[in-house]
Amino acid sequence: MSKFFNKLSIIAFLSIILLPSISHAEAALDPGDLVGISFWVISIAMVAATVFFLWEAMRIGGKWSTSLTVAALVTLIAAVHYFYMRDIWVASGDSPTVYRYVDWVLTVPLQMVEFYLILAAVGMVAGRVFWHLLIGTLIMLLGGYFGEIGVLAPVVGFVIGMAGWLYILYYIFSGEAAKSAESAPAAVQSAFKAMRLIVLVGWAIYPLGYVFGYMIPTVDAAALNGIYNVADFVNKIAFGLMIWSAANSST
Ligand SMILES: *C/C=C(C)/C=C/C=C(C)/C=C/C1=C(C)CCCC1(C)C
Predict the structure, then answer these.
(1) Secondary structure of the chain in the HEC alphabet?
(2) What is the share, in percent, of the chain residues with pLDDT greater than 90?
């Protein structure tokens, strides 16, 4: 019975948060606007993923429920931002850069929390692992943001952003985070490896979007947003699904 009420309160909570953004649409979507359609599809996919991860957090429970709840927070934050970004894009064709980075500055650190949590759940990790990953994240995002809004030359922002990302890769492939994972149980290790593969392969889509958007040779808002949208879909939903599948295989 109390599980039933938990679920009811999740539905009420999601409706309160998401309804204003759902009803906010100002302009009709043009059938030829593929980027606009991708904004639409992904905003709904983020809502669906949120419900799924929350539900599964309660069903699976135990030490995995925190990780699954954080996965749901990532897609929830993204869903809200996608509703606003979609409206800006559909109404004006402009890149919703500020909203995009506000989303990232919240969701990327939460994904770094995930690395910490899956290792901490088995007692394998020091708190400084999270701080190192957070610093790498902030350098990456600040470089990208200042490059995109024109405070830095696009190429300078790009180089700073790449440096932050490479630091994260170093830290999870051969730094302390990697070493902490070595002695973890099989399910934790496979989740850790799948997650860092996403940070290597899935995250590589973002600098690609930046290059096509700003560096060859003029600003191309459609390429930029189309590529970023695909990247968010992969890196927020697939990332959560990796955790979900590890949780399932270990319980
Ligand atoms: C949910 C959102 C995620 C996982 C966002 C990730 C963003 C990146 C990995 C961005 C990376 C960038 C570079 C590596 C260099 C150029 C600038 C950025 C910020 C696009």
Answers:
(1) CHHHHHHHHHHHHHHHHHHHHHCCCCCCCCCCCHHHHHHHHHHHHHHHHHHHHHHHHHHHCCCHHHHHHHHHHHHHHHHHHHHHHHHHHHHHCCCCHHHHHHHHHHHHHHHHHHHHHHHHCCCCCCCHHHHHHHHHHHHHHHHHHHHHHCCCCHHHHHHHHHHHHHHHHHHHHCCHHHHHHHCCCHHHHHHHHHHHHHHHHHCCHHHHHHHHHHHCCCCCHHHHHHHHHHHHHHHHHHHHHHHHHHHHHHC
(2) 66
